[in-house]
Amino acid sequence: MSAMSRGLSRPLLAIAMVVHAAASHAEPLATAEVQYREVDVTYAAEAVVEATRQSTVSAQTTGRIVELRYDVGDVVQKGQVIARIDQTELAQVVAGSEAQVAQAKAAYENTRVEAERTRDLARQKFVSQAALDRAEAALRIAAAQLKAAKAGAGQATTSRGYTTIIAPYTGVVSARHVELGEMAAPGKPLLTGFDPADLRVVATVPQYKIGEVRTSPRASVEIPSIGRMVPGASITVLPAADARSHSTLVRIDLPHDVRGITPGVYARAHFTVGRGRKLVVPTRAVIHRSEVTGVYVVSPDGRVSLRQ
After folding, report:
1. Can you tell me whether residue 70 is helix, strand or coil?
2. Which of 137, 222, 251, 283 lies 20 to 30 angstroms, CA to CA, from 235?
3. Beta-strand relationship, 164-166 and 81-85
4. How far is the C-alpha of 275 from the C-alpha of 125, rounded, in Å?
5. Distance separating alpha carbons of residues 209 and 138, to the nearest angstrom
């Protein structure tokens, strides 16, 4: 061995000795034996979160938007005012309708008095039966005109009520389709919202698996974005299939206490389709290294290696 080789061999040997000494004083590793157990056999399917209650509030009358109280991300309580439309024109319509009602009421009262007078004269044989019939017909016409005027006033009042948009349920605003000052028209979308306490996932299941899924007693939903597995509340197989993908949609209702997810979030549905004998390891022993998932295995000679 050359002098240079002898000079390099001493440090390497020393390092090896130090490592051996450290290993001899190291604490023993916590280990657990893998076991075969009867576990649930599951089938996983891609899914997406959606809101059970999601709606778009639209205008029911024409007018300029004068108030928008909420924006995207705001929480709105049921019954709160979320927007207002200018009601100046509709207020004038209501005033005109009320005036028509007053006019029709006055005409009806006058016609009623005339009809009563004609009835008295007819009983005394001072007027003919034809005159009485005309008075009775005029009274019926006046009553109909009064009824029509009241209906018109009620319609105008209802239309004025459409200028105040009320939240139909407690939820979160997910989209705003208009800006302050824009013109609203019947059917024009204003705000879109959903109820975060009432969510579900929709999974796409191949048709050859629908039979097993339909008889599945339970299902769980994996939501990678929050790192959580959520038990499904109920399973509903939609009675329709996609002819192009040969798949069927399956809905899984989520519990009301799930937080941190919104409609459109990716999920994975796990349907329990049976029982089987599987080799299992403790969950805390599983590690993730980039795209590799594995466990550290202790061999009989004490060596530790990562097994995928």
Report:
1. coil
2. 283
3. antiparallel
4. 99
5. 74
CA angle 82, 88, 90 (to 5 degrees): 85
- Label residue 23 by pLDDT band (50, 70, 90): very low
Alpha-carbon distances, residue 40 vs 29, 235, 250, 268, 277 (angstroms) = 30, 17, 20, 17, 9
Largest CA distance in the chain: 153
The token pair that represents 92 in the structure block: 């004038």
**pLDDT value of position 56:** 92
Amino acid letter for position 118: T
Give the C-alpha separation, 222 to 263, whole Å.
15
The one-letter amino acid code at 110 reads: N
pLDDT in tens, 51-87: 999 999 999 888 899 999 999 989 999 999 999 999 8
E strands in 100-188: 164-166, 171-176, 183-184
- Closest to 77 in 3D by CA, of 199, 200, 253, 196: 196
